[in-house]
């Protein structure tokens, strides 16, 4: 607490102990917050019946009603497989103990379910049935670790506020917290175990995001994370799902040290119903998040104190040295980029929404290009903002929540995201008023990459379950810092493939560690950091699906207009929204087009609600020569980047590969 002047309530409670609170001595009348209460009521305490408790402890136990078990015993229909609650709890403890087992010891840690600060409330131990809460020996073989299993947001708030410095309830009701030194992802610290299977399946070498590590080093880091987690008083365990397609649902377990991480994943993954949790069984994949603890830099393959390690054979991911929560959700996304294509399902780094008539649009783009902003559209159903699958049955969201950038967020421009920031939402690295706890979204003192993570149903028109039919429009978002790409162009299939494989944008400051200024970047499939196989594998699937379902590709520049970064300005969000509206409605498909030089892009001459002169970027530049030079410069960067793909075939069709090459800029 600081020493600021007390607020109105404090003054009243002080004053109520003195005669002047009655207002009978001619002193000024005290204003209270309770306007319904008459002044004469103040000293009387006979309005309600007394509580049915004789002690404070009794009163507290009255307050907490026993909730339905998270694993309810089935009714008459399912009676044959009813397991008593006690047995089920025992199985749960054993399962989590197995997750946390050090592989060098024979058994897992001794676990107790519940909050260590609330002893005796329904606790369960792993392999000692009678547990004496007085044990406090700091020997790892004897020590007990409490685990907090699938806590509710309210419980996680209490945990965070009690024990995690920098956690506050914002005035909107959201939980504001800090991710520590890392406020963005660390792609250079990502490692993937290279073994017999991944050797052939994965994309390795130049340009690949998969920096290799050996199995042994993975185990060294795993042991480090597990030992760290077991050394704590308590850990958080989330058992949840990925993918709204019931046939391809993945069970994930997240073990973490921070309530913030547990709430983040509660929001971002699909939340199981009590019935689904009952049958959860063994997870398909486990994350060990020991982000507060660094990796050992003397360990082979480690180049910093941060390491994010994926072992596909073991179905595990270890996080050391970063508390940025996005690392977990994007780590799981990488896993899906491996698992889904093996089932002939395309994984997509895209947002997705659907119109009233069932027309689905995908929004591909790198961080900060507008996937979340543009898929959240008050006139359409939101299927998801970031990670999807496209199967034979249509599209499905991988996640159960959204993760919006909130720098400069305003209620006027993005009302749905603004209103989603309420109780239950995690607000990462925002700055708030020390007294009112009001967030200043303009303030980037902690980072440019401030974030809000909320369950998808916090968006009023979310489509639950988050699935939809085959997409009609494939929108490729590029935030062009050079200011030479048109605000919108219609793409041929070959052009769509060319731009999908190129994955051009200007990386906006913040989301990746170390990027302070916008900078031109190419990221295959608009998500090179997450793909696991060669980009052409995903491109071939996209091309095949687009042809089969007759989808149209579009390139939308959400970046600069009227000059490059520094002289031009970012295209108004309102204009981009009108452009997107025209794509959805179908009106843009049949508009008049002209072809640009160099990039050979088809640009419309008119769009309702958008000034026609901005549609051709040359009009917005005062210095036409500078425009031409910049266009050529960017075209050169595209060609240089695409060079590495020229020897690859895309799918079975070699003519398409030639067409794709020809669909790039020419000058
Ligand atoms: N014309 C525009 N189109 C889309 N986003 C814009 C535009 N102008 C500014 N922005 C801002 O850019 C950011 C886009 O971020 P976001 O939608 O979270 O991207 P992504 O989900 O692709 O990482 C938001 O902060 C948004 O307000
Ligand atoms: C969470 C992320 O996603 P995006 O910026 O694409 O929303 C990220 O890239 O760290
Ligand atoms: Ca991203
Ligand atoms: Mn996003």
UniProtKB/TrEMBL annotation:
GO terms for cellular component: cytosol. One of its GO terms (molecular function) is ATP binding. HAMAP family: PEPCK_ATP. InterPro entries: PEP_carboxykinase_ATP, PEP_carboxykinase_C, PEP_carboxykinase_N, PEPCK_ATP_CS. Residues 1-78, 106-132 are annotated as: Disordered. Gene3D superfamilies: 3.90.228.20, Phosphoenolpyruvate Carboxykinase, domain 1, Phosphoenolpyruvate Carboxykinase, domain 2. Pathway: Carbohydrate biosynthesis; gluconeogenesis. It is found in: Cytoplasm. This is phosphoenolpyruvate carboxykinase (ATP). The keyword Lyase applies. Keywords: ATP-binding, Cytoplasm, Lyase, Nucleotide-binding. It comes from the Eukaryota. Residues 32-47, 112-121 have a biased composition (Basic and acidic residues). Belongs to the phosphoenolpyruvate carboxykinase (ATP) family.
């Amino acid at each position: 607490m600081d020493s600021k002047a007390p607020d109105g309530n404090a003054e009243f409670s002080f004053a109520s102990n003195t005669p002047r609170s009655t207002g009978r001595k001619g002193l000024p009348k005290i204003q209270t917050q309770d306007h319904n209460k008459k002044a004469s009521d103040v000293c009387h305490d006979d309005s309600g019946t007394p509580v049915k408790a004789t002690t404070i402890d009794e009163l507290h136990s009255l307050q907490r009603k026993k909730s339905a078990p998270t694993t309810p015993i089935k009714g008459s229909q399912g009676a044959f497989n009813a397991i008593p609650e006690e047995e089920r709890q025992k199985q749960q403890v054993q399962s989590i103990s197995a997750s946390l087992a050090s592989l060098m010891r024979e058994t897992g840690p001794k676990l107790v379910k519940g909050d260590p600060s609330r002893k005796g409330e329904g606790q369960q131990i792993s392999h000692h049935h009678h547990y004496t809460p007085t044990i406090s020996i700091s020997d790892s073989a004897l020590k007990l670790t409490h685990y907090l299993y699938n806590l509710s947001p309210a419980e996680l708030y209490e945990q965070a506020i009690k024990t995690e410095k920098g956690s506050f309830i914002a005035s909107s009701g959201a939980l504001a917290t800090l991710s520590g030194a890392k406020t963005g992802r660390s792609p250079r610290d990502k490692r993937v175990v290279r073994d017999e299977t991944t050797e052939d399946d994965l994309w390795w070498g130049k340009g690949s995001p998969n920096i290799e590590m050996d199995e042994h080093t993975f185990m060294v880091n795993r042991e480090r994370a597990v030992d760290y987690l077991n050394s704590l008083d308590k850990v958080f365990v989330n058992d949840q799902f990925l993918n709204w397609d019931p046939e391809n649902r993945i069970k994930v377990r997240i073990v973490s040290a921070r309530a913030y991480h547990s709430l983040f994943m509660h929001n971002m993954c699909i939340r199981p119903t009590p019935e689904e949790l009952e049958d959860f069984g063994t997870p398909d994949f486990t994350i060990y998040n020991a982000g507060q603890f660094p990796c050992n830099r003397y360990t082979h393959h480690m180049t910093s104190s941060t390491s994010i390690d994926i072992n596909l054979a073991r179905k595990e991911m270890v996080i050391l040295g970063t508390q940025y929560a996005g690392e977990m959700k994007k780590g799981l996304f990488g896993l899906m980029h491996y698992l889904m294509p093996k089932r002939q399902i395309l994984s997509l780094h895209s947002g997705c929404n659907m119109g009233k008539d069932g027309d689905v649009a995908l929004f591909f783009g790198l961080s900060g290009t507008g996937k979340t902003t543009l898929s959240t559209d008050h006139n359409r159903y939101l299927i998801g903002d970031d990670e999807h699958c496209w199967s034979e049955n249509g599209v499905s969201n991988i996640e159960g929540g959204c993760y919006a950038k909130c720098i400069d967020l305003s209620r006027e421009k993005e009302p749905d995201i603004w209103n989603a920031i309420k109780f239950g939402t995690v607000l990462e690295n925002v700055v708030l008023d020390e007294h009112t706890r009001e967030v200043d979204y303009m303030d980037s003192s902690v980072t440019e990459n401030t974030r809000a993570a909320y369950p998808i149903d916090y968006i009023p028109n979310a489509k639950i379950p988050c699935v939809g039919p085959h997409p009609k429009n494939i929108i490729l978002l590029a935030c062009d810092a050079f200011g030479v790409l048109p605000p919108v162009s219609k793409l041929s299939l070959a052009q769509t493939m060319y731009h999908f494989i190129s994955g051009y944008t200007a990386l906006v400051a913040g989301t990746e560690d170390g990027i302070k200024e916008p900078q031109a970047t190419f990221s295959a499939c608009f998500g090179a950091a997450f793909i696991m196989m060669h980009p052409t594998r995903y491109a071939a699937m996209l091309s095949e699906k687009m042809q089969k379902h007759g989808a149209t590709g579009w390139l939308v520049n959400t970046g600069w207009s009227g000059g490059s970064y520094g002289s031009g300005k970012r295209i108004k969000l309102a204009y981009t929204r009108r452009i997107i509206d025209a794509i959805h409605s179908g009106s843009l498909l049949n508009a008049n087009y002209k072809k640009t030089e160099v990039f050979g892009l088809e640009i419309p001459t008119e769009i309702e609600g958008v000034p026609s002169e901005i549609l051709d970027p040359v009009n917005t530049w005062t210095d036409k020569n500078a425009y031409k030079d910049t266009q050529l410069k960017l075209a050169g960067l595209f060609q240089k980047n695409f060079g590495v793909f020229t020897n690859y075939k895309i799918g079975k069709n070699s003519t398409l590969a030639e067409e794709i090459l020809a669909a790039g800029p020419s000058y």
